[in-house]
Amino acid sequence: MALLLRHSRKLRRVHGVLDCERGSIARHFSVAAAKEDAVSSSSVHGEYGKKVGRSSIFLHRQSEKDLHTFKVSSREARGSYSSKRMPIAATGVNSLFSCGQVVSARHFSSGADLPPHEAIGMPSLSPTMTEGNIARWVKKEGGKVSPGEVLCEVETDKATVEMECMEEGYLAKIVCGDGAKEIKVGEIIAITVEEEGDIEKFKDYKASSSPSAESKPQSEPVEPKEEKKEVSKAPEPTATKTEESSQSGDRLFSSPVARKLAEDNNVPLSSLKASAAKGSKKEAAAAPGLGYVDLPNTQIRKVTANRLLQSKQTIPHYYLTVDSRVDKLIKLRSELNPMQDASGGKKISINDLVIKAAALALRKVPACNSSWMNDFIRQYHNVNINVAVQTEHGLFVPVVRDADKKGLATIADEVKQLASRAKDNSLKPEDYEGGTFTVSNLGGPFGIKQFCAIVNPPQSAILAIGSAEKRVIPGAAEGQYEIGSFMSATLSCDHRVIDGAMGAEWLKAFKGYLEDPTTMLL
């Protein structure tokens, strides 16, 4: 067995696969041709992956009549050989890939047309990612790639992430070029080879399907991607039938929305062309003289929309609002910033003080630092505050970790760095994952007085900060008045986790820190 394992340098360093839950490798040997057929991850060979345990490899030797299976322990495999596979990693997210998130498969052709090569699939760079876009290729087709070099930039559902190469080789073929969109996780995006002389053989290579589809037995037909798209289209006969019936002397069928739009635009319904149910709304909206443009949705926009919709449909929201007098908070900021300037640090903003106050309030009322897990409520020991940042690319929520333990200067520096990376669309997964509470501030940047934010699942609360405004309030003596600055804060809560009294207790603690900010420095 050890000799068999040492036979090929292609199966070295298998421990990188065995360390993950789904890790397993299936190697096929054709006895007749004495050539290697394929090696791929268990996510590609699902039919074999179901048969293996967490840390084992199955070597399949196939003859014309039967199939012999050998089980090798991870320790034996680890000590016997290493691999020349070319795994792909994203900067800063190696932990994600250690669990088999990157789909790549090495194929060994029995013919002379396709030499040994690596089929690189679109990686899964976040728990919610199902498809991605290729922002641009950094490496050019035919070029050599070395460990640590960036191959391309992938636009995920949350950010743009650099994909790095971990071993040497040559980029033989770029299957999905710059700007390619809606590439499913696992779908082939590039081909790499080990020998420079093999590059030319992939000049006309075209990937017909994803690596998982390629590796499935021929007995399991795979529907072409184009056929699925055609099925989803509205059939033409429906539109024609609707048009004929509407132009006849019979009753004119139209929806209330169509009638209202026609009435508002002084357009007779009889002058509009009928269409299928799927396209009727679009046709009615496109009334004469009504100009419009269709803007494509980015990945971050799609995910944000789906998550917000899910939140409002599944989380029982309720809202608590409190006004805090922030004169002392403003004064403290004015005293701290000259010291920051002198030391070369970033200026402290009101939002930085709000983040610190929210973090300390969560430490005082830890029940609000929790998530609903159906069968139980998970209460977090870490206080990680997500900060909402609006950019031209969409809404991002980078995270300040352990905000309750960090000083104001550190928080100010981190927030500005994260906001800058968000605006540059260069956030990495570790920059926005793992938050336990979110702060959204529309007061300072936009002057919004008060608003209610939507809970960011799986969190149970989000704080909406409005602008500070001056108000005339009664003074100490009768008939005396003074001017004070007040800021509105609204806490949106998941009622499954945070009861009304509990949310009120948190707001009381938060207000206390804002109105007596020196307590945050203790």
TrEMBL record:
Q: What EC number(s) does the entry state?
A: 2.3.1.-
Q: Where is this region: Disordered?
A: 202-252
A single GO cellular-component term from the record reads: pyruvate dehydrogenase complex
InterPro entries, sorted: 2-oxoA_DH_lipoyl-BS (IPR003016), 2-oxoacid_DH_actylTfrase (IPR001078), Biotin_lipoyl (IPR000089), CAT-like_dom_sf (IPR023213), E2/Pdx1 (IPR045257), E3-bd_dom_sf (IPR036625), Single_hybrid_motif (IPR011053)
The similarity comment for this entry is: Belongs to the 2-oxoacid dehydrogenase family.
This chain belongs to which protein, by name? Answer: Dihydrolipoamide acetyltransferase component of pyruvate dehydrogenase complex
Q: Where is the composition biased (Basic and acidic residues)?
A: 222-233
Q: Which UniProt keywords apply?
A: Acyltransferase, Lipoyl, Transferase, Transit peptide
Q: Does Transferase show up as a keyword for this record?
A: yes
Give the matching PANTHER family. DIHYDROLIPOAMIDE ACETYL/SUCCINYL-TRANSFERASE-RELATED, DIHYDROLIPOYLLYSINE-RESIDUE ACETYLTRANSFERASE COMPONENT OF PYRUVATE DEHYDROGENASE COMPLEX, MITOCHONDRIAL-RELATED
The top of its lineage is:
Eukaryota, Viridiplantae, Streptophyta, Embryophyta, Tracheophyta
Where is the Lipoyl-binding domain positioned along the sequence? Answer: 117-193
Compositional bias of kind Low complexity = 207-221
Instruction: List this protein's GO terms for biological process.
Output: pyruvate decarboxylation to acetyl-CoA
Q: Note whether Transferase occurs among the keywords.
A: yes
- GO MF terms held by the record: acyltransferase activity, transferring groups other than amino-acyl groups
Cofactor requirements of the protein = (R)-lipoate
